[in-house]
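Protein modeling request. Please complete all fields; requests missing the sequence field cannot be processed.
Requester role: graduate student
Desired output: 3D structure, token encoding
Chains: 1
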Amino acid sequence: MLEQLLLLSQTDHDAAQAAPDSDTTEVAPVLRQVIEELSPVYPHLNSVLQVDWENLQTLQLPPLSLQTILKNLLENALLHAQGLSRIAIAMHDQQLLVQDDGQGLTAAELTQMTRRFWRKSAQQQGHGLGLALVKALLQHHHYQMDLSLNPPQGLSIRIRPEQPSSTLN
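Delivered output (169 residues):
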């Protein structure tokens, strides 16, 4: 928890102080590294993970930020999606999609998921910082995260570049 709080605080500070880095990072090698790190803690990870390796491309994120984002998204699914049998990762049109088929959420819960310290219930593991950290990192690098239900159950997370705001004439 302390590590995530420090990283979240540093991300907030960096966002206020400087422009984001313009690193372009290959998703596949970073994802492989994250899977390798998480496998000892979650031995069933490889049996539930379905990755469209051929279509993984690059994202305009520094490698450490991408690693933190992927690790938090995977851990979030593994920790909180009871009944989970699949986590799918794919990319289409410069958008990264992470979907699971775990226990569903309500529309109200979806709106709360990126709030710091929010958890669905007190019985769940974690500290409620993972998705808040992911959101802060993405915003710092001009990306956004869209959360939606993944019918028939589960969560779908889409990471995409922010759309430029249109100007009114």
